[in-house]
Amino acid sequence: MPRQPLAEFTNLAAVHLKVDTKFAAITELRGEHIQCRSGCHSCCLPNLTVASIEAAQIRQYFVQNPSALAAAVEVAHTDPHAGLRCHFLDAAGACIVYPVRPALCRAHGVPAWVQADAQSEPQVDVCPLNFQGVDLTTLPDDRIDVDTLNTLVFMVGELWQRDSSRRRVGLSLKALRISRRGAL
Ligand code: SF4
Hints:
This protein is mainly alpha-helical. The protein contains five helices and five strands; from the N terminus they run αβαααβββαβ. The structure holds iron/sulfur cluster.
């Protein structure tokens, strides 16, 4: 049984809960348009990076959960998705760090409100498997504002460790500085 998050990750857990709650509300309302299910991992792409605080929480999860660490080591050795998926996706298509997966992973699947850069107009984006044939501009409340989410993660990161939020960390054992032999 995973332990409770350390107090230093309480604010991050609150942000994650906020995303989960919004995701659940959208799913409740628009479930017929959402194909997300266990085993679908089309959004679990390689080379994703997260804020330092989210990386630290995942590292702590591995420290507390030897079976999760063993699973990640197995993936690192066998590369079951031929480099086309996140290092924390197991051979069966399940997220090894699911209880502490990053905020953006939690938001994947429902419409996202994103602004590519300061010059661009914000627009709504969604997994191509979901909301097929639906005019997303008619669902203004059924989306997650990615810029606001990134800002919240940035702020809890700064409260956790000043200036840490400028650093992005890859989702891999190597980037988390965990040995493939499992030694932490
Ligand atoms: S951390 Fe988990 S949910 Fe996020 S991309 Fe990796 S396998 Fe997918």
